[in-house]
Amino acid sequence: MAYLWLPRGSGVTALTVTLMVLSPPVTLVRDTRRRFLGQMKGECRYVNGTQQVRFLNRYIYNQEVFVRFDSEVGKFQAVTELGRPIAEDLNSQKDVLDNYRAGVDRCRNNYDLVRLLSGRSVAPSMTVYPTKTQPLQHHNLLVCSVSGFYPGHIEVRWFRNGQEEEAGVVSTGLIQNGDWTFQTLVMLETVPQSGEVYACQVEHPSWSSPVTVEWNASCYLSIRTGFKGLKFLRVGK
């Protein structure tokens, strides 16, 4: 076991946390040891620019909030019984309270930086392909791969012959890359027929309008349209 001690004067929280150190198993047996995770999450909330600023900080143990600080309240609050003695201890330390109460001023001073970072975006890359090499009249999975985009807010829809498909659509969900960008795979289970045209449509803040990649079941190719009137043709394998 490893022990992490955070001193009383650190402006964080005065408690001792016990962490389980994960060691690689030497044999292929089920590891039933419990894992414990402690987190601290702070956030700044803005209304009408800096007219109304709120600073929040939450202490989380195993995905459960046990102590929180709200600048509108001005002190630490216990959310669970575990957090009651910790909140009382933190509230008894004037230097800690003063530091957290000043958090709203730090949020206000950082507003321009937050606005700059939140306004940046990276456009997605899109590819549509079937998982089987002989797709016609056989059960298949059409994959719409959307990658390398920021921010993570994105809408992906499947269409067949102009009609939106909702049944048979599965997704990996949002996956974080190591460079702050995201990726996702949205798949459509279907039996492609000759003459059918499938389309994956993506909406993202980096684009002023949706972008569509089409996949033609007959000639097995995909066409991208919708961004500044451009079209890109990609012949499938």
TrEMBL record:
Keywords: Adaptive immunity, Glycoprotein, Immunity, Membrane, MHC II, Transmembrane, Transmembrane helix
Highest taxon of source: Eukaryota
One record GO biological process: adaptive immune response
Ranges of residues in domain Ig-like: 124-212
InterPro entries documented for this protein: Ig-like_dom, Ig-like_dom_sf, Ig-like_fold, Ig/MHC_CS, Ig_C1-set, MHC/Immunoglobulin, MHC_I/II-like_Ag-recog, MHC_II_a/b_N
Subcellular location per the Swiss-Prot or TrEMBL entry: Membrane
GO cellular component terms listed in the entry, alphabetical order: MHC class II protein complex
Topology relative to the membrane: Single-pass type I membrane protein
Pfam families: C1-set, MHC_II_beta
Keyword Transmembrane annotated: yes
Family, per entry: Belongs to the MHC class II family.
Name of protein: HLA class II histocompatibility antigen, DRB1-15 beta chain-like isoform X2
Organism the protein comes from: Heterocephalus glaber (Naked mole rat)
